[in-house]
Design a protein that fits this description.
single chain, 5-stranded parallel beta sheet, alpha/beta, 7-stranded parallel beta sheet, Rossmann fold, globular, 30 helices, 5 domains
Length: 705
């Protein structure tokens, strides 16, 4: 998740733009075909000029023999003897080699061939895990670090999510334990004569790793964890086994236990036989499985042993179940598969069944404290509990020093306290921090110590959502685990829809108003909900919405200036609510189809001018300052009915409303032409006919949304 591919792309653009370099040749080197495909696609999709992907070693040599400003992608494996065996391919100096994953293949014969073939090239290394060993040292090979962007910074920037590490079933761990002890743990309770036979069969660590008894125990634990902690929020997982046989055994055990859907992927050998041959996949099938894992509901698990441990980007993967020995940069790269960011994903998790903790700590120490601090949080449960406590208390303190969770009057004050938008924003931030940590903790029983306090905060949030119709206060941004927890409590309080305020069109809304303890509270609820609904109505009936907003502003001003009693204010707001809830009445007043009425109002306002009043009745069917429906208006000496014009405009819009017209310029152009033809035919005279036509098309967009 360090952004190497994009960083290489931007670096290549910069090198291309340096006139003094004389249109250099760029060679992008990776160490795997899938990474080669990925970087080639990145350059091509970004519009980089004519990148070339080397098809073979011969093709690569031909491209490098006469470099003239090319951009070439190749795997380092093509630098075998067929390309160069200590032989110079080109003497050019204006060549830049951008090397991906520089820690792996830049210290042996292939790297030597690469440098011999391009003796005057300049080399840049890009890696998320540099190495500092006597025979493999990234800085010694490529020079000092130019720029560093580490995992801690990427988490802080919101580019990646933090990684948590947790060991499970320590009695089945294989790392750092002698074979006899491992055997005794796995085969506990087996009769002595059977144990002797099994001891001959499972005589080494790899054999015990794939023993059915051990695989079944771990598979059962894995399924329980996945279904409780990962699957509810819509995320997926990867199982990493110690061998192909163990990977296949996990696949079969998870199926037999009716676990989540999965696919097994491993390297297929020539002339494969038996079960490994039966479950093998072609390269095309493998790509399709990976695509479905990333984009579709199933499979939920990918089970691997030697694939997808580096360079694999699947944001939907939240957990890696690790049952394989890994070391150093390979271990750090593997666990990095879970740190890709996705909506509602707040952390990645590595669950270790092998016992790699010692290797993980050693790998982190290799990079030093300044590089490794915060890269992985080991056994984070206690810290998550402590942080949840701090976050919940911080959210409670937002409403005062004392939390009174069973005081209805205090609840009312807290809801009123959230009236200013900036307070709701701050409360939202505090609640989200607490809820995200609680979601991470679930289903650990420790969540119960926070249950009552968090659900009280959720109840205040829900009431504020109803009061202020502020959609940022709903729960749609939270994972399903936390939504279910909150819903279970709020349903008891009579709340059934968690992410929607009670609609003003619902019969329950009147009950909600009546439930408020004072007339002031009832008026406040009506004021905020009407303002929110009028804002929404602006997109679908702007002139009528403007008249409603003006009425609301006059009622509010009169109340604040003490020119209107609370009871009268409540009555006026209730009358306004009736008008807002009955939009068809607007069309009936105009004696026109309610679907046509908004277009009529826009045209009428354009004719009368922007300052003409609208919406207050001056007589039966009248629209003051504009035109009376059914009455001809004067347009250059020709009598024409404004209602007829509006209906023809509506028909023109409907006739040209092809599927997806809102995003099609040609369809909108035809709409504008048709509308203008109607207006001109009926001699509608307005100062800005193009502006009127544009407003009518925009109105159609708003009503179609």
């Amino acid at each position: 998740g360090s952004g190497k591919s994009l960083t290489m792309l931007w670096a290549a653009f910069k090198l291309r733009q340096q006139a003094e370099l004389g249109n250099p040749t760029l060679l992008i080197v990776t160490d795997r075909t899938d990474l080669d495909d990925q970087i080639f696609a990145t350059f091509r999709n970004a519009g980089f000029p004519t990148p070339v992907q080397a098809r073979s070693a011969k093709h690569l040599r031909n491209e490098l023999s006469h470099p003239v400003g090319q951009t070439i992608m190749s795997t380092v494996q093509k630098f075998r003897t067929s390309v160069a065996d200590g032989v110079e391919v080109t003497p050019e100096h204006s060549i830049f080699v951008l090397t991906d994953e520089a820690h792996v293949t830049q210290y042996g014969k292939l790297a030597g061939n690469l440098r011999a073939a391009l003796p005057h090239a300049t080399f840049f290394a890009f890696t998320g895990t540099p190495i500092a060993k006597p025979r493999r040292n990234t800085v010694a090979e490529f020079g000092p670090v130019i720029d560093r962007y580490d995992h801690v910074q990427s988490v802080r920037d919101g580019v990646t999510v933090p990684i948590r590490y947790a060991g499970r079933l320590p009695e089945l761990h294989l790392a750092g334990v002698d074979i006899d002890t491992i055997f005794d743990r796995v085969f506990r309770g087996i009769p002595d004569d059977e144990r002797e036979r099994l001891k001959r069969k499972y005589a080494n660590r790899d054999a015990i790793a794939a023993a059915p008894r051990r695989i079944e125990a771990i598979a059962g634990d894995l399924i329980a964890h996945f279904e409780a902690a990962i699957e509810p929020n819509g995320f997926k997982g990867q199982v990493v086994a110690a061998s192909r046989e163990a990977a296949l055994a996990y696949y079969q055990a998870i199926r037999e236990l009716n676990g989540p859907s999965g696919e097994v992927l491993y390297t297929v050998l020539h002339n494969e036989e038996g079960d490994l041959a039966e479950h093998a996949h072609t390269a095309t099938e493998e790509k399709e499985i990976i695509r479905r894992f990333k984009e579709e509901a199933d499979p939920k698990l990918l089970i691997v042993c030697d694939k997808l441990l580096k360079g694999f980007d699947a944001p939907v993967e939240q957990v890696m179940y690790l049952d394989r020995p890994l070391r150093e940069h390979t271990l750090l790269q593997a666990i990095g598969r879970v740190n890709r960011r996705m909506e509602k994903k707040t952390y990645g998790l590595v669950v270790d069944y092998w016992g790699n903790l010692g290797e993980l700590q050693a790998a982190l120490e290799q990079y030093g404290t300044d590089l490794s601090a915060g890269m992985v949080e080991i056994n984070a449960r206690d810290r998550v509990i402590a942080r949840t406590e701090e976050a919940v208390e911080a959210a409670l303190r937002f409403f005062g020093p004392e939390a009174r969770l069973d005081d209805p009057a205090h609840d009312d004050r807290c809801v009123r306290f959230l009236e200013p938008e900036d307070r709701r924003i701050r409360f939202n931030r505090l609640f989200k921090n607490a809820a995200d940590l609680m979601d991470e903790l679930l289903p650990d029983p420790a969540y119960r110590r926070f249950d009552e306090r968090l659900t009280w905060l959720a109840r205040i949030r829900r009431r504020a959502l109803n009061r202020y119709a502020d959609r940022s206060l709903d729960f749609s941004d939270y994972g399903n685990k936390i939504q279910r927890l909150i819903a279970d409590h709020l349903v008891v309080d009579g709340v059934t829809a968690l992410n929607e305020p009670v609609s003003i069109y619902s019969p329950q809304f009147r009950d909600l108003v009546d439930e408020q303890p004072t007339q002031q509270e009832r008026a406040s609820l009506l004021e905020h909900r009407l303002a929110a609904e009028i804002t929404v109505r602006t997109e679908t009936d702007p002139v009528f919405a403007e008249s409603l907003r003006e009425r609301l502003e006059r009622i509010i001003a009169a109340n604040r200036e003490r020119r209107m009693e609370e009871q009268q204010t409540l009555a006026e707001l209730s009358g306004l609510l009736d008008d807002v809830r009955n939009p068809h009445a607007h069309g009936e007043q105009l004696e026109i189809d309610p679907e046509v009425a908004p277009y009529y109002a826009v045209i009428a306002r354009a004719i009368a001018g922007p300052t003409a009043p609208f919406g207050e009745r001056a007589g039966p069917g009248a629209v003051p300052g504009v035109a009376e429906p059914g009455v001809p208006y004067d347009a250059g000496g020709t009598e024409s009915d404004l209602r007829t014009v509006s209906e023809l405009v509506y028909d023109a819009l409907r006739d040209h409303a092809v599927v997806g017209w809102q995003a099609k310029f040609d369809a909108q152009r035809e709409m504008r032409r048709a509308i203008k033809a109607v207006l001109r035919e009926h001699k509608v005279s307005v100062p800005d006919i193009d502006g009127l036509v544009a407003r009518l098309v925009d109105l159609a967009k708003g009503r179609a949304a």
